[in-house]
Amino acid sequence: MATDDLAVEMIGMTKRFGPLVANDDVTFAVQKGQIHALVGENGAGKTTLMNVLFGMHMPDEGRIRINGQDAVITSPQAAIGLGLGMVHQHFKLVPSLTVAENVFLGMEIVRHGLINRQAQTDAVRALSLSSGLAVDPDRVVRDLSVGVQQRVEILKVLARGARIVILDEPTAVLTPQESRDLFRTLRGFTDQGMTVILISHHLDEVLEVSDTVTVLRDGEVIGTEPAKALTEARLAEMMVGRPVASGRKPREGTQGAPVLTLTRVHARDDRGLPALTDISLTVHAGEIVAIAGVDGNGQTELAEVVAGLRAPSYGDIRLNGTEIAGAPADIVRAAGLAHVPADRLMRGVDASASIASNILMGRQAAAPFARRGIIRWGLVREQAKVLIKRFDIRTRGPDAPVKSLSGGNMQKVVLAREFTQGKPFLLIDQPTRGVDIGATEGIHDEIMRRRTEGVAILLISVQLDECMALADRLLVMFQGRIVAELNPATATVNEVGLQMMGVSVDRRASA
Amino acid sequence: MTEATTTPPRRVPVWAEGLIGQMLALGVALLGGAIIILLVGESPLRVYAVLLRGAFGSAENIAGSLLQATPIIICGVAACVALRGGLFNIGVEGQLYVGGFAAAWVGFTLSLPAGVHGIVGLLAGMLAGALWIALPAIMRARFNANEVVSTILMNYVAVLLTSYLTIAVFKRTGGWSETEPVAPTAYLPQLMDGSRVNMGLLIGLALALGLYLFLRFTNAGYAVSAMGANPRFAAYGGIRVQRNVFVLLLASGAVGGLAGAVETLGVHRRFMEGFAPGFGFDGVIAALLANGNPLGVVVVSLFFGALRKGSLLMEVETGASREIITVIQALIILCVSAQILIRRNGGVSGEKRWKF
Lengths: 511, 356
Fold this sequence. Notes:
The structure holds 2 protein chains of 2 kinds.
Chain A lengths: L5 E12 L2 E12 L3 E5 L6 H8 L7 E6 L2 E3 L4 H6 L2 E4 L11 H5 L6 E2 L2 E2 L1 H15 L14 H14 L4 E5 L7 H16 L3 E6 L2 H7 L2 E6 L2 E7 L5 H9 L17 E11 L5 E11 L3 E5 L6 H9 L6 E6 L2 E2 L5 H7 L1 E4 L3 H5 L6 H6 L9 E2 L2 E2 L1 H14 L16 H13 L5 E5 L7 H16 L3 E6 L2 H7 L2 E6 L2 E6 L6 H8 L6 H4 L1
Parallel strand pairs in A: 3-10, 3-11, 6-9, 9-10, 15-22, 15-23, 18-21, 21-22
Antiparallel strand pairs in A: 1-2, 1-4, 4-5, 7-8, 11-12, 13-14, 13-16, 16-17, 19-20, 23-24
Chain B lengths: L13 H26 L4 H13 L2 H26 L7 H18 L6 H28 L3 H23 L29 H19 L1 H11 L1 H6 L4 H28 L10 H11 L4 H24 L5 H24 L10
Helix pairs in contact in B: 1-13, 2-3, 2-12, 3-7, 3-10, 3-11, 3-12, 4-5, 4-6, 4-10, 4-11, 5-6, 5-10, 7-8, 7-12, 11-12
């Protein structure tokens, strides 16, 4: 392949952080006009490689060529000067400013020393039309849906003259429909001769949208192949290093009596606005009920209401025969709740404390870990050791602080604590957020094992494939209501996706 | 959260690292103090030597240092109780005043058998301290009102109220702005002849050790620590944070009141207007410098006590005034907290606690 066809060439890149080698002699070439996917598990080195390309890290070894020219990229500004643009996983937008103000932040169009708002608005509108990214330049970013905010991020990059666009996990926050729109836009870019580098976890999307796929594992390139030549299973195997099961989990009918029943539950969010409206649902023993929905449609409040962390404004909640609506968390836990919270750093762990100390939470007041008010730390540490082994938590021991663990291993600490208490009801909120494929598989297997043991499970996830793989029944939440109940064995992704968007509500019209 | 977190290779254990850093910070502070001493025209070496002699030169001087350290230890433990639960009781000074006054009142009003009288006095001090923080505690637990502001404000009320009571209501006939002396039955036993070092020191040490063991080994202590480190995690795990906030602040106030009671029954044996120059604030600072570790509070308090005692002799023998000590103390606080912050941002140890 001729060198002048290449938009990006990274040759022999090595980047170390202390003893950790994040990229080990990585060679990565992207052809002009292609969508090139970069895939790999957490910690495989994808983000590091892209941060090096974008001038945020300096490589220890290796060289970079952009459009056939040697380039030394010492800062993001230099990268932008070379026609590179990066859309980060976590948006870097100012919520209180308008779309146009965000797009031109730091490079405002100025006339007579003042910002020329009209010119900025016009420029954004023109860019929006030419790129196919529909946004209203005068809307305040705070009021936009996540999908539209992402379009603003991409517009920012385009406004800075990017011809090579890097997107870090762009679909993590989108509905299937929004993802498809995004891909159509990206395809439009390459039709105009631009180049797209896509970092992603979602293998189906990678195969659907990209021309070429490069797989990283443990900082090394495992292979670069045309997407057409790959299957999902093959790709997963390349990433993890062993075959990975996927799709719907096999199961037998072991459904029992109702364990959790919500009857006409209403609740308000922190600002006092209605967050849950008339929620009624039942979870039986040995059953997984999944709540699908775009983030921010009341799932957080639903989990809190069930877990005793938020009092409902109306309605009954029965857990294992006990009325728990409005009861504090210790009462709900005593009634039979185990809870894997969505935000592990904020709620699931005390990051500064040891693994053993985190394992103890919720059980500190009763036998066997406490006797007459005294904690038996020896026993707690033993239990922590057992769980570290059983859940394959990568750590130097039970005394290591939780913050020394990677995100996936932190999640395993939470799971280890909540899954081993023998409780009849499990509330699982986003079990695999930020967790890589290998670990996700293990977590899903653990959830299925609890189901087989007869535990009633309420699973809340924004990842539709996860809901489809695990659930016996699938409920879709939209704007605080349950808008549909579907059979995950027969429902299509498209069907569920439409329900997640409220069917008749067209988000593009509101944008 | 895409890349693995790395831990830097560690050559010295965490506690040693902390200690070395602390010593370094202390050195820098003393160096800064030396410059100030030079500016007032004294020899730093001489001043520091006198300071040391004043604090540790003889058994009497050591006893004097311990005497000064006693209220700081108890106030430090008071602040620690709140701090470990993620709360700030900056009102220890005020609790010390009302506790001291209540104990004195019990001492000069009631007549009880020896021993019992002292204990009732101490309990009265604790009760007064707890009542004094009750309002900020309710406001915090119920309405989430910032306890830093409310406890600080209560300080002024406490100082002025006890002044008023001393001057206008209970003033001893003739003489100074002080109450009647406390009955001898309420005195705290002294530990040695020729010094006013008393039971209060042992009470303070026992409290510090007790708090340390409580936090480390009991489930209630675990709940407090979890709450201080991450209140949302604690609530999630079934700990009743709101109730604990109230109880903790009350306990902290009670210990603050006890400090005052120990001072009046053990040292002054009456209540004097302005009897406790800054012990409460020194205690809060000791708790912060020790990062909420009760045993660390004892060490810092002993150091502060020695500085206070040493400064008395320094003022007599050298041209440096007692205020120099305040300056040096401030420098130490600056250096040590800077060092703690640097360490916290860099390392894996340390806890996110005292963030204003």
